Amino acid sequence: MAIKGLADDHGEVRPLEGSLAGYGRLRLAGYRVIFKERPARGVRVIDGIFAERRALVYEIFVRLLTEQAME
Fold first, then answer.
1. Is the distance from CB of 26 to CB of 12 less than 8 angstroms?
2. Which of 3, 11, 29, 34 is deepest in the core (most CB within 10 A)?
3. How many Å apart are CA 23 and CA 40, to the nearest integer?
């Protein structure tokens, strides 16, 4: 339900900063879902990009972004 709530701006959401600026995070108990919003034909689209336990999510996601940039 919390992920569906993103469409209605519900849930514990916050924008990320620093190297993750442009992404948002949704808190789901001990997990975090990283997402990105984009417009598509005048409609707001929310792409769920990565989810992991809170203790690991940011470190792993930054590493994945860095690896993608190097390809």
1. yes
2. 34
3. 17
Residues 6 or more apart in contact with residue 65 via CB below 8 angstroms: 19, 20
Quick one: DSSP state of residue 17?
Answer: -
Mean pLDDT value across the chain? 91
Q: 57-69 burial by CB neighbour count: b if 16+ within 10 A, else e?
A: bbeebeeebeeee
Q: What is the pLDDT of residues 12-38, one digit of tens each?
A: 999 999 999 999 999 999 999 999 999
**64 has pLDDT over 90:** yes
**pTM recorded for the entire structure:** 0.85
Fold of the domain built from segment(s) 2-70: YaeB-like fold (3.30.2310)
Residue pair 3/29 in contact (Cβ under 8 Å)? The answer is: no
